[in-house]
């Protein structure tokens, strides 16, 4: 089962030095495991780099996002929505 979850994130813009809101669609899938006592069930963070556009200057910049990945989830993709 795939989970497509749009989120609004706030980024500091290196172009105009302001802060902007961006819509990011995170695509996740559920992975089923047989639990054992030694499995780590904590949340891990996945780093992804994406291109964003400054709405004031209409210039692109790259930013790295840290996305939480919980036990039993796999991140399939991260899309910046226009």
Task: Produce a short descriptive summary.
This protein has 82 residues and is mostly beta strands.
Primary descriptors:
mainly beta; 82 residues; two-stranded antiparallel ribbon; three-stranded antiparallel β-sheet
Radius of gyration: 16 Å
- Overall 3D shape: elongated
Beta-strand portion reads over 45%
Uncertain spans: none
Give the end-to-end Cα distance, rounded to a whole number of Å.
Answer: 26 Å
SS element count, helices: 0
Which strand order does the major sheet show?
1-2-5
Write down the secondary-structure element order. Answer: EEEEE
Biggest β-sheet: count, sense, barrel?
3 strands, antiparallel
Mean pLDDT figure: 86
Task: Explain what the structure shows.
By secondary structure, this protein is mainly beta. The chain has one domain (2-81). The protein contains no helices and 5 strands. The strands form 2 sheets. The chain has a 3-stranded antiparallel sheet, with no helix packed on it. Strands 3-4 form a two-stranded antiparallel sheet. Strand 3 (44-53) and strand 4 (60-69) form a beta hairpin. It is elongated.
């Amino acid at each position: 089962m795939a989970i497509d979850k749009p989120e609004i994130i706030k980024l500091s813009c290196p172009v105009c030095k302001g802060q902007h809101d961006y819509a990011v669609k995170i695509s996740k899938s559920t992975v089923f495991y047989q639990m054992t006592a030694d499995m780590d069930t904590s949340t891990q963070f996945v780093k992804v780099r994406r291109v964003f556009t400054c709405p004031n200057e209409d210039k692109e910049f790259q930013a790295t996002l840290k996305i939480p990945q919980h036990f039993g989830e796999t991140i399939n993709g991260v899309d910046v929505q226009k």
